[in-house]
Amino acid sequence: QVQLVESGGGLVQPGGSLRLSCAASESIFSLYAMGWYRQAPGKQRELVARIMRGGGTNYAGSVKGRFTISRENAKNTVYLQMNSLKPEDTAVYFCTANTSPGSPDYWGQGTQVTVSS
């Protein structure tokens, strides 16, 4: 059982930046993928970004060029650097872990990101 704890959310003005962190309770080195999902009020949960065991990444079209996912295996931590934030980025962001292809096996509790002036 991998436990994931997110941090770094908060309130930021449009155009600002935030960096989310996700600390895992055990080594992430061998996990198939780590990711970030988000859920805005009244909307379905959506994949924001994912980083594979080999380092490959993919992003939702709405965040490509603005968000960057990275991992630091030595610290069992995954990051989501979010730049040029927009009000539509407002959501609860969840860290996830996959042990194999498909839906995530583990989820964090989520961290709120609010983009507003």
Task: Annotate the secondary structure layout.
Elements: E1 4-7, E2 10-12, E3 18-24, E4 33-39, E5 46-52, E6 57-59, E7 67-72, E8 77-82, E9 91-98, E10 106-107, E11 111-115
Parallel strand pairs: 2-11
Antiparallel strand pairs: 1-3, 3-8, 4-5, 4-9, 5-6, 7-8, 9-10, 9-11
Radius of gyration: 13 Å
The rough form would be described as globular
Main sheet specs: 7 strands, mixed
Give the mean pLDDT: 96
Task: Give me a quick take on this structure.
By secondary structure, this protein is an all-beta fold. Helices cover 0% and strands 50% of the residues.
Overview of this protein structure:
By secondary structure, this protein is mostly beta strands. Helix content is 0%, strand content 50%. The protein is built from no helices and 11 strands. The strands form 2 sheets. Strands 2, 4, 5, 6, 9, 10 and 11 form a 7-stranded mixed beta sheet that branches. A 4-stranded antiparallel beta sheet has the order 1-3-8-7, with no helix packed on it. A hairpin with a 4-residue loop joins strand 5 and strand 6 (57-59). The chain is globular. The mean pLDDT is 96.
Question: What attributes characterize this protein structure?
Answer:
117 residues, seven-stranded mixed β-sheet, 11 strands, 0% helix
